[in-house]
Amino acid sequence: MPDDRIILGAAAIPEPDRHWLAAAERLPVGSLWQGGHVLPPSATGEAITRLALLTAWTERVRVGAAVLVLPLYHPVIAAKQLADLDSRSGGRVSVGVGVGGEFRAEFEAVGVPVAERGARTDEAMEVLRSLWKGGPVTHRGKFFGFDDAELRPVRPPGAAGAAMRAGGPPLLVSGRKEPAMRRAARLGDGWMPYLVSPGAYGRSVRTIRDEARAAGRDLTGFEWAAYVYCSIRRDGDRARDDVAAFLGGAYGGKPRAMLDRIAPAGTPEEVAVRLQEFVDAGARHIIVSPAAHEDTLGIITLAAEEVLPRLAVGGAAR
C-alpha cells in the first residue's frame, strides 16, 4: 500500500447485512470487516462464517476477518476455507489474526490450552503460508504434523479472473501487547491493533520496526492498519453518548476522557482531528468500527464522506 494513501475501512456492525453492505459499497470505503468467536457469550456470529457472507454480499471491496481467533482452528481446515473464499471473491480476502483468550470456555471446548494460544498462532500462520504457496507440503511442528498435504482452492465455473491471490490472503496481526507486535514483525503482512490510543499506536510502530530490523526482515509492503471504535454524528454529544454506552461498561465506568483516547467520538470535524493523530502515528488504513447500537451506517457514511477527505499524510486534518 502506498505510504501517502489513506484507506478507510468499516466494520459491518452488528452483523453482516446484505442491504447495509450494498450501501457501504456505494461509499468511498476500501474494505469491510467482521470477526467472531466460536463460543461467544451472546448470540453473535463466527469469523469465517461472517467472512463468507461478506464475500457473497459484496462485489468490489476488500473483505476481512477482524479478527479470526486462529488458535481455535486447525490450520489445514482454516487454510482451505480461507483459500476458497479468496478464490471465489477474486482475491479480495484479508485475515486479521488474533490469539483471543477472553472467553476461556471456547478454548476448553476445542481442547486448546489458553497458555498455548500464542505459540499455536505462530505455527498456524506458518502452516497457512506453506499451504497457500501451492504444491505438496510436509510439516512437523510442536502442535501440527502432516505429510504431502496439497491445497487446491476451488475456482468457480464461469468466473473469469476469479482465483486466490498468489501466496494467499494477507495476514494482519492484531493485539495490543508486545508479543503481538513481535508476531507482526516476524510473521505478519500487517499490523491491526484495536483499543489503542494514537500514542500507543506510534509506539507499536516503532517496536515492530525495531523487531523486524533485528530479525533482518524488510517491511516493504507491510500494511499499517488501525481498528478504531468510533462514533460520528452531526450532534457530537450524541456521538459521545454512543461510545459511553457501547464501551463504557467494559472499562468499569472509566471517564469519557479515557474512552476518547481509544474511541474517538464527536462531529465529523472533531473525529477527523482524532483520526489524523492515528495517521500521524503511522496508520494508513483506518478501520472504523461503529461504537453505537443504532444507525451504524450513518456513522460509516459520515466517516467516508466527511472525515476521510480531511485526513492527510504529513499534515493536520483539514
UniProtKB/TrEMBL annotation:
It comes from the Bacteria. Residues 20-248 form the Luciferase-like domain. This is LLM class flavin-dependent oxidoreductase. Keywords: Oxidoreductase. Pfam families: Bac_luciferase. InterPro entries: F420-G6PD/mer, Luciferase-like_dom, Luciferase-like_sf. PANTHER family: 5,10-METHYLENETETRAHYDROMETHANOPTERIN REDUCTASE, PTHR43244.
